[in-house]
Amino acid sequence: MANDIDVLVSEVGPRDGLQNTKQFMSTEYKKRWITAAAAAGLREIEVCSFVPPKLIPQMIDAAEIVAHALTIPNLTVAVLAPNLKGALRAMEAGAQKITLPVSVSHAHSLSNVRKTPDQMIEDARRICEARDELPKDKRPKIESGLSTVFGCTIQGEVKESEVLRMAVASLEAGCDEVGLADTTGMANPAQIRRVYKLVQAEIGERMAGLHIHNTRGLGLANVLAALDIGVRTFDASLAGLGGCPFAPGASGNIVTEDLVYMLEAMGFRTGVDLDKLVAVRNILTEGIPEEPLYGYVAAAGVKGSDCAVATAR
Ligand code: COA
Ligand code: ZN
């Protein structure tokens, strides 16, 4: 991590958010969003996913979006790819980081990628082999994004031993790092601490960040618990957009603006200008006017001066 920030806030709205919105956001608005988010100080943005456009039409312009994001200085251009074909498309487009959705829940894995978790690991192996054939300076970082780590709305309980097994298998398959995702927003702070530490004890430095959804209102409480045990990378989504269309009941990510507010208020440096970040919401209001936007800080006003709006909510 750059030494002028303490916590890396990774914006996933253009991917996790837009995969779940009913309204299509045009390519021009996506580009404006990404440019403005980077100008507000975000250093990593998951800009799209390389999925079949038939399945998620919103992602039809993925390669063009990556090409645009690559023109922005000091930005890590991250994407999601659910299979070998998607990862090859992502590498061809020049993505700098590829996250693979490796579901620990058998049932969610089948629903999301039509493969069992173990079959997904085999895909990860093939993807990493393809990466290794690229010249060294063109190789993207590959993260195994373990999903439904803290519970699954289809399967119910997800065994911690399985989380550990999939983390180790991901690294053996060639992934660079492993992140933990609360896809369904079922995690609680005690569980966050326990499971993160369990996996970290096994894979140490190759642990990546946390991807938290606020489905049950525990998002920032979970962040706080994770901060206490040293986690310094968090995914979040502008205006709390997001959710997995293949996990029933899943809703938005933690709100980037609220996360930045909390971190900065606690003395962590994020590199993000909160006023500029809140202003980026205007691009969503124009680009996808029918989608509900969430977030406490935007409602209250960054300096708390906009209380009328907050009261009126
Ligand atoms: N990008 C573009 N096209 C793709 C593709 C990709 N990543 N993967 C497959 N396709 C195409 C195939 O070429 C094939 O095309 P054809 O019908 O013209 O021959 C078609 O899609 C079906 O391919 P198949 O390999 O049978 O895929 P599938 O239908 O079993 O779907 C996944 C598997 C993984 C591609 C799909 O389930 C998926 O995209 N899941 C991810 C969903 C998601 O984004 N969830 C939220 C994020 S966690
Ligand atoms: Zn998510």
Class of secondary structure makeup: alpha/beta
Q: Widest sheet: strand order?
A: 1-2-3-4-5-6-7-8
**Spatial separation of the terminal alpha carbons:** 38 Å
Strand content: 5-15%
Sketch the major β-sheet.
8 strands, parallel, barrel
Number of domains: 1
Q: Ligands bound here?
A: coenzyme A, zinc ion
Q: Which spans have pLDDT < 50 for at least 5 consecutive residues?
A: 307-313
The CATH H-level superfamily is Aldolase class I
Number of strands: 8
- Helix-strand sequence: EHHEHEHEHHEHEHEHEHHHH
CATH topology value: TIM Barrel
The gross shape turns out to be globular
Bin the helical content.
Answer: 40-55%
The overall average pLDDT, rounded, is 95
Quick one: CATH class? Alpha Beta
